[in-house]
Design a protein that fits this description.
The protein has helices at 13-16, 66-69, 78-90, 101-114, 125-143, 162-168, 192-198, 222-235, 257-260, 304-317, 322-343, 365-374, 397-423; strands at 45-49, 52-55, 60-63, 118-122, 149-153, 184-187, 203-208, 211-212, 218-219, 238-242, 266-269, 280-284, 349-352, 355-359, 377-378, 380-383, 386-389. By secondary structure, it is of the alpha/beta class. The chain binds pyridoxal-5'-phosphate (PLP). This is Aminotransferase, class III. Pfam families: Aminotran_3 (PF00202).
Length: 427
């Protein structure tokens, strides 16, 4: 008899935290042809409304990820549906080489709303960050003797293109495919002396997220961001803020820089600007406005359909009381998460507006996310010991209370599983 066959595999904490789906039938859709580049759980989503999603088995989920904060107004908001339907009837994309009304209106609206001088429209946050880097380097050629060095913070995320990955440094997830591009260096976040020491004659810009998302929702301190702005002014280099995640109301103000009372030369926007459709923007101010015709282009840049979404999102966010309500609900979310963290002996709760992270007492974030999914709650884990909460900006207090109940049940599941693990129980 082969004794190895009798040995049972020891289940992981994540497996122990959930029981198999009740009455789980064979998946209705095959994933065989999809490249396995992203690890996804089993449900196949078919419908969404506000803070809620439904899968193909008609199970409901409360969504506190909202497509990584892209769905600023929640799932299928009526204003976005109406704007897209109306625009799709008349014009989808005349091509980036021609003007369309939405392109002109959105560029104008973004500049007026953010006190910027120029805007360029793109399709993803990665593209906006890469365009920001190109713009800074163009400025370096014109005004700093060809300086091209960009300093970023360790553990930053500026997207998944090669320049964006190089900006984030070798530790960035997905940065495993050979050497990065030259001209980027990283220093610890919230460390002004380290930043000061890293600047040299080759430096053209400092590029930062006001709140580091993938690092575990770590806000810049006001002292730090104001200090960085001052340093840039004193040394005559550019400040680039990557507000792809933190901008467009996510932190309770239209731009996160407003919270800090700073003013960047270049800003990258994305995610929430399209409310769930692919739309991003590059904003430039004053001396940084130095691109000329032919230096940026892309098939979908300024696409009429996508820009109609951007205008609908801005209309909602700029409605009287909308951001005030988001700030109010954000404070409630932060306060109640802190209470829950203390009840379950977890760590720190940090963030702004409706952008929060909770550090855990151990590296159980993936297990909590999995247990939460079984409780019908969608969360993300940017770090092994950190949960991230990015609900719709239109989330209600009722949604927040329901999320807290489901999260508490997920914590209990994981705690029970941890006890089983300690006792060495196999299931
Ligand atoms: N910058 C930040 C701060 C991000 O969080 C992300 C994506 O998560 C990006 C850039 C890249 O955006 P996208 O995924 O739209 O390319």
């Amino acid at each position: 008899m082969n004794l190895f066959n009798l040995r049972r595999t020891v289940p992981s904490l994540e497996d122990l935290a959930v029981e198999p789906y009740a009455n789980a039938s064979a998946p209705a859709f095959s994933n065989e042809c999809l490249m396995p580049s992203v690890q996804r759980p089993q449900p196949v989503f078919v419908r969404g409304q506000g803070s809620w999603l439904w899968d193909s088995e008609d199970r409901t989920y409360l969504d506190f990820t909202q497509a990584g904060a892209a769905n600023s107004l929640g799932h299928s908001p009526s204003v976005l549906v109406a704007a897209l339907a109306e625009q799709a009837q008349s014009l989808i994309n005349p091509g980036s080489g021609f003007y369309n009304r939405g392109m002109l209106k959105l560029a104008d609206r973004l500049c007026r709303s953010t006190d910027s001088d120029q805007a360029y429209l793109l399709s993803s946050g990665t593209e906006a960050c890469e365009a920001a880097i190109k713009l800074a380097r163009k400025w370096g050629q014109l005004h700093r003797g060809g300086a091209a060095g960009i300093i970023t913070a360790s553990q930053s995320c500026h997207g998944r293109g090669f320049a964006a990955l190089s900006a984030a440094g070798s530790g960035a997830p997905g940065n495993r495919f050979g050497p990065g591009l030259p001209g980027f260096s990283q220093v610890p976040f919230n460390d002004l002396p380290a930043l000061h020491a890293a600047v040299d004659a080759q430096t053209v810009a400092i590029m930062l997220e006001p709140i580091q998302s993938e690092a575990g929702v770590i806000p810049a301190t006001e002292h730090y961001l104001k200090g960085v702005e001052r340093l840039c002014r004193e040394l005559g280099i550019l400040l680039i803020l990557d507000e792809v995640q933190a901008g467009i109301g996510r932190c309770g103000t239209l731009l996160a820089e407003q919270l800090y009372g700073v003013r960047a030369d270049i800003i990258a926007l994305g995610k929430g600007l399209g409310g769930g459709v692919p739309l991003a923007a590059l904003l430039a101010r004053g001396k940084a406005c130095c691109f000329e015709a032919g230096e940026l282009d892309g098939t979908h840049h300024g696409n009429a359909l996508m820009t109609s979404a951007g205008l609908a999102v801005l209309d909602s966010l700029q409605e009287h009381g909308f951001l005030q309500q988001a700030r109010h609900n954000g404070e409630y979310l932060g306060q109640e998460l802190t209470r829950l963290a203390s009840r379950y002996a977890q760590g720190q709760v940090r963030g702004q507006g409706l952008f929060w992270g909770m550090t855990l007492a151990d590296e159980s974030a993936d297990a909590v996310v999995k247990a939460a999914l079984h409780e019908g709650l969608l969360l993300s884990a940017p770090q092994p010991d950190c949960l991230r909460f990015t609900p719709a900006l239109s989330v209600s207090k009722g949604n927040i209370d329901e999320m807290l109940l489901r999260l508490a049940r997920a914590f209990s599941r994981v705690r029970t599983a941890q006890l089983h693990c300690r006792k060495g129980v196999a299931v």
